[in-house]
Amino acid sequence: MNDLIRWTASRTAAAIASGEVSAVEVTRAHLDRIGAVDEKVHAFLHVDAEGALAAAERVDAKRAAGEELGPLAGVPLALKDVFTTRGVPTTCGSKMLQGWIPPYDATVTRRLKDADVVILGKTNMDEFAMGSSTENSAYGPTGNPWDLARIPGGSGGGSAAALAAFEAPLAIGTDTGGSIRQPAAVTGTVGVKPTYGGVSRYGLVAFSSSLDQGGPCARTVLDTALLHEAIAGHDPMDSTSIDAPVPPVVEAARAGDVRGLRVGVVKEFGGEGYQAGVEQRFHEAVELLSSLGAEVVEVSCPSFTSALPAYYLIAPSECSSNLARFDAMKYGLRVGDDGTRSAEEVTALTRAAGFGPEVKRRIILGTYALSSGYYDAYYGQAQKVRTLIARDFAAAYERVDVLVSPTTPTTAFPIGERADDPMAMYLADLCTIPSNLAGNAAMSLPCGLAPEDNLPVGLQIIAPAMADDRLYRVGAAVEAAFVDRWGHPLLDEAPAL
Ligand code: GLN
Questions:
Q1: 134 Cβ closer than 6 Å to some ligand 1 atom
Q2: Is 179 an active-site residue?
């Protein structure tokens, strides 16, 4: 394996800036790696070798001209296929958008390009970001690089797998109920769901608009922070974008210190349904925090136990409205338009053929929950639960600075195991959903391998809205302590592909 592909993003950027390697060499090494392993991993739906090399050449030309390079200039990245990319296919893992070439860039895409990040291609995902395993992709599943017969998490399994397979040092995901953090946890990588409104949703194909949030993924906390800074900040094209300075995430990741910090262990996350090895590694991480000088207390957030049912009313309700745009008239798939059928018939045939079973299930559920007579009983109740969850968080933050929990109840499960059991699949997001409902910031980072299966376990850190920097301060301290203890980053333990 070419050593270069194991470098962190920050080291890669420094090597490009100093002339130790060219951006084109770095890009070629990653394209070669994709060529060598992606047939097995299937992290990518589309590789844009030409566009990536052209971007890398521009970075090398800038350097040759003596222009100053940004902190991630020339570093390759894998972009979840839910962000529009001008001239490059965007499918959202759905047949509905097969062959669609967007005429515009999402704000995240644009900011990556402005930062001279090299976009290698688009990554596999559960259809329209609905799922926890990437098995709902219309283009086939992605394998977990730790064990290709297991899921890489979802919906952003492709982005996480690309990192863990050393196909890219940086990736972008989106997190509506856990789709950045859960894949990070089960692949031994780092993922952050920024504060809702912290990263623009313009050009992010909508699933559930009040929950969706794009965010950074990488193999280290510092790399994640550098990417966070590159994509975050106010965007007038997104009405929910927060017009305030981006929290000092890079500074916090460089500082990495938990002394005197008050850490709350959420009592409701644990016990029945949690894998013993996951709980064990989580408790060790809590002990570690305490040994590093944090003040650990237990906190109770009783409404969190209702987060999952509330989410599975709110998210489908919003998706039933958002996905109405796929009507076969404006763009994307069109089925049965042979001159004999009405527009309504063409729309119905297109939706029947274009959407997969999970997307249909949610549209039906959401349409039902929003229908008159049921609205108050379902959607209205779920919104009340959402308020209670936000209150639980507010009460907890009166006592602590951050909250911690396992990111997921179990390690990566075998492909196929939960594919026909939506309820079992939904449970994967038990610990991640509350922070989406309340708009808080949250991170998952590796905290070891579960003893029973030698698969990665994620530690989740949750911080109040606009205190994203706390995630990085804590995450960097934990990461450094683990690397000291293990002698290397966790991914060094991963079996070779
Ligand atoms: N797994 C959750 C769901 O299926 C979360 C998905 C996401 O965050 N995009 O809705």
A1: no
A2: yes
Pocket test for ligand 1, best of 80, 130, 363 (most atoms within 8 A of CB): 130
Question: What is the distance in A from the centroid of ligand 1 to the CA of 317?
Answer: 14
Cβ of 178 closer than 6 Å to ligand 1, yes or no, is: yes
- Check if 372 is active-site: no
Q: How far is the CA of 432 from the centre of ligand 1 (A)?
A: 10
- Cβ–ligand 1 distance for 131 under 6 Å, the answer yes
- How far, in Å, CA of 143 to CA of 162, rounded? 10
Of all helices (H) and strands (E), which one includes residue 58?
Answer: helix 49-64
Both tokens of residue 79? 């972009």
How remote is the CA of residue 208 from the centroid of ligand 1, in Å? 10
Is the entire prediction scored with pTM above 0.90? yes
Which portions of the chain are predicted below pLDDT 50? none
pLDDT digits (tens, 9 = 90+) for 437-476: 999 999 999 999 999 999 999 999 999 999 999 999 999 9
pLDDT per residue over 85-129, tens digit each? Answer: 999 999 999 999 999 999 999 999 999 999 999 999 999 999 999
The Å distance, Cα 274 to ligand 1 centre, comes to: 19
Distance CA(22)–CA(413), nearest Å, equals: 39
Closest Cα partner for 300 from 264, 271, 274, 270?
A: 264
**Distance between CA 402 and CA 361 in Å, rounded?**
36
Please, what is the end-to-end C-alpha distance for the chain in angstroms?
Answer: 10
- 317 closest CA partner among 378, 367, 373: 367
* 263 backbone dihedrals φ, ψ, rounded to 5°: -115, 130
94: preceding bond cis by omega (within 30 degrees): no
**In the beta sheet, which residues pair with residue 78?**
121, 171
DSSP-assigned beta bridge partners for residue 297: 264
Closest ligand 1 atom to 311 CA: 10
Q: Specify whether 342 is catalytic.
A: no
Which residue has its alpha carbon closest to ligand 1 atom 5?
A: 177
Owner of token pair 């990245």: 77
Domains delineated in the chain: 3-303+387-493 (3.90.1300.10)
